[in-house]
Amino acid sequence: MATLYTKVKLYLEANSKTWDAEKNNIDLRNDGSGSYIKTWNVSGLEKPNDSKIAEYDSAGDTAETLHSVKKTRGLAYPELKEQLDMQYKDLLNGTTTWKDAVAKVKSDNPKE
User: Fold this and answer.
1) What are 6-17's pLDDT values in tens digits?
2) Closest CA to 30 of 57, 8, 2, 3
3) Within 13 Å of residue 78, how many CA atoms lie on the same side as its CB?
4) Are residues 19 and 49 in the same domain?
5) Angle at Cα 45 formed by Cα 40 and Cα 48, nearest 5°?
6) What are the angstrom distances between the C-alpha of 32 and each of 17, 29, 35, 83?
7) For labelling alongside 106, which of 9, 49, 51, 78 has CA 20 to 30 A away?
8) Which domain holds residue 95?
9) How many folded domains does the chain comprise?
10) Phi, psi at residue 36, to the nearest 5°?
């Protein structure tokens, strides 16, 4: 299940706001029995109730899964200098080493 942070971020974005612009106006807490919004001082936007936040469960799950895949891919890709070297050698030799390496990382870590 998506975190409250992710669902609040999506709620803000759906209402033409951003987390970065509003993070000082919102205080999210977890008292051990669950996460909740302690403080909400977002100008022009009503504090979402539990049912409104629940509307972002599915989108939040998708966003967190995508974030996880991107993070995993980022760690799996060869370092940039190695990728540049692959590209240079591919240009010289007519090979597809770099393209193949990137495709393997993507196929090993699909978005869906």
Assistant:
1) 999 999 999 999
2) 3
3) 16
4) yes
5) 60
6) 29, 9, 8, 45
7) 9
8) 78-112
9) 2
10) -155, 165
